[in-house]
Specification:
Largest sheet of chain C: 2 strands, antiparallel
Radius of gyration of chain B: 22 Å
Radius of gyration of chain C: 19 Å
Helix content of chain B: over 70%
Structural class of chain B: mainly alpha
Distance between the termini of chain B: 21 Å
Number of helices of chain C: 12
Oligomer: heterotrimer
Strand content of chain C: under 5%
Structural class of chain C: mainly alpha
Largest interface: A-B, 48 and 40 residues
Number of strands of chain C: 2
CATH topology of chain C: ABC transporter involved in vitamin B12 uptake, BtuC
Distance between the termini of chain C: 34 Å
Chains: A alpha/beta (255), B mainly alpha (340), C mainly alpha (288)
Number of domains of chain C: 1
Chain lengths: 255, 340, 288
Amino acid sequence: MSAVLRTAGLSKRWGAFYANRDVSVAFEQGARHALIGPNGAGKTTFIDLLTGTVAPSAGRVYLDGDDITTLAPHRRVKRGIARTFQASTLFPSLTVLESVMLAVCEREGRGGAGWRALASETAASSEALAILDALHLGAESDSTTRTLAYGKQRLLEIALALATRPRMLLLDEPAAGIPAKESVEVLGAIARLPREVTVVFIEHDMDLVFRFAERITVLVAGSVLAEGAPDEIAADPRVREVYLGEIPQGEAPLA
Amino acid sequence: MAGSAERREPPRRAAAPAPRRGSLSDGRWRPLEVAFWAGTLAAYFAFPAWHVLGSQILITGLFAVSLDIVLGYAGIVSLGHAAFFGVGAYVAGLLAANGWHEPLSALGAAALAAAVAGYLASFLVVRGTDLTRLTVTLGIGLMLWEAANRASSITGGVDGLSGVTLAPILGRWTFDLRGDVAYAYALVVVFAVFTGVRRIVSSPFGRSLVGIRESSTRMAAIGAPVERRLRAAFTLGAAIAGIAGALIAQTTQFVGIDALSFERSAEVLVMLVLGGAGRLYGGLVGALVFMVAQNGLAGIDPVYWQFWLGCLLVVVVLFFREGILGGAANLAARARGRRR
Amino acid sequence: MHGDFIGVVFDGIAFGSLLFVIAVGLSVTLGLMNFVNLAHGSFAMLGGYVCVVLMSALRVPFLLTLPAAFVAAAAAGLVLERTLYRRLYHASPLDQVLFSIGVVFISIAGATYVFGSSQQPVRLPGYLQGQVRVAGHDFGVYRIFLVAVVALLTIALEYVIRRTRFGSLLRASVDHATAAAGLGIDVGRVFALAFALGSGLAGLGGGLAIDVLGLDPTFPLKYMVDFLLVVAVGGAGSVRGPLIAALILGVFDVAGKYYVPELGGFAVYALMIAMLLRFPLGLHGRLG
């Protein structure tokens, strides 16, 4: 197995504050890789750097060995990197179906087509409906996004990312705000994606992390504290030290 | 309680026909739209004495629609949209004043010139923050006004460009003083351009502009080239503003330097917001209401007009945010809710 | 107009200083409240008319009318902020733009109604008129006075922002409005005071500007783009950025109009747009 996406010495500095400092991580083809760490550890910034939403202060990002550090975000999507956002950034006035269809059209290079109605893109609409059905959002396809319940908006985030047919899926707290039972289902669906898709996810719920991750990277204060298989991470005394103060009683998942 | 409501939800959903697609605009003309355009046609016969004003309302409405693409759909706040209106007006006016009297080709030339101007300006506009956009659009408008003012030997400067004489349209209809031909010509052109805009806003491109307005980060994250889309929208808006400007020049056979003025940019902004931005018909409705009101108050001192315009802006922003069409849509939704 | 380079540059610095005094309040409102207040020039115009009325009707000496211009504009700013502006802090930029254009139109119409549309004359006191000759160059006394006043104001402003309690509250609120509110800072009060201070400075600038920029009801519109450029190029929320931007704009505007009159204002706008493209967030971010 080889790394699909890797970083070398990636740093992001705002003034004197390092959100990320010298982060070098490799994501193997087909991995189910969790990114964990306390609040403010720089997990979201790291994803922003990988997707080009934020430009790094130093370091490089490589996709399939190519340096993509300065590639524009939408071009990275074309090369197969998709993401979801922690805070929902959807299109409030578009319907669920329209939103997903837009993502499909962009992938097919028809996003700039200006003469035929979006509604007449039948191939895009059946594909979008299939994605929505897989995420149990089919019944909501005609709802306007702003009227969706929060949990369903989170699912729509994932639907939009899947519609780009990513090889590299970066999920920023996909299960936050979704009821526990559904979150297992959602992450299960993601984990069952074909192995051509590499999945990286940020997650706070340690049950979910240890259930679905095959590899874990721990970020603390912007730097990598530890990386390894789940049992190695669970046994790592440094990780336990960071987490024991953080986790509410009765939930200590590392035990 | 909320839980029980949720549990009742699925059966009702299941009873509904499996995924409706009706909510996506499929391009069919709705009854209200047909009524609107039938009204513009009927107005030709019903108000023969008002053809001059009527044609100006239609043209200004088209100008507002062009701003709607830029502002209402793509979300770019522009303080200098009159720049492109003025470019169109001067191109059509100068052609006609200098020996090219055929109106339709001049219309095309004006659209092209305004599109080029818009495309060049778009590089300055689409990057940057809202403040930068405001400053740059305002600056471009002022520079063009100043350029037209300096080049008074060509443009007539503040006296305006006269001597605009046109050949009959398609060799058959000659512009008359009562504005009969002007109204018909404006109506045909405005309707044709509007039909195009109507298609464009429901296309993937048009929907992607809405997406960019609502979340440009998210739009980039699904692979859309955000800046290129915005440049295209700005160029399209400029081209249509150019057509509107050319229509004004041709139907009034005159180009005043105020075609490029800040007041013109501000007024069209007011009309669009008054009618409802991002609603396609908002510009047309806003122009109608605005210009009828302005015409009715024509007797009063322009200073008072400016005062009331200012008050109107403040009141619209504070209390009537969604414009006439938005307000009407809310009322309609409330009425439907009550019936159910 | 001076015939030599040094004189032209000095005139440019004087013009830039004026722009800075008027526009610095706009920078603070934009940085602090994220409010695009296109009506900022209306407060400058108010200051100008206060000076004119006090001088002509009440025979108040010019120098004494300036503090009055400050107070009047600051009071007007405070009232409008408390009643109207603060309702729109969370509105979209479009709403803010429309609202403030409305205020501009109302102020223009109001000024025309009260004072007529003509230019207001200003008679500077004798000791501010004429020229002095320094090292072989002629300098207008009033221009020297302007630069000196603005230099003092800038130092005072820096002191207020860096050394006073209000200044530290202001800086905290610019950096993190929510965090500042969380720390128990009355952000609303800080906003109101900052708005009043910025409006007052604009009023003072308006009074100082009568002799240089002229004063008629279209003032807020005529110089709107200059104020916006100063803030956009300088960086919203900053004091030093707009100062530098205003001086650059002033010098290049005066020099451009003097040396290449046929290009007039175009050269300086082109330069400013180039700077905007180079520094999209301004020369100097945040308060500093």
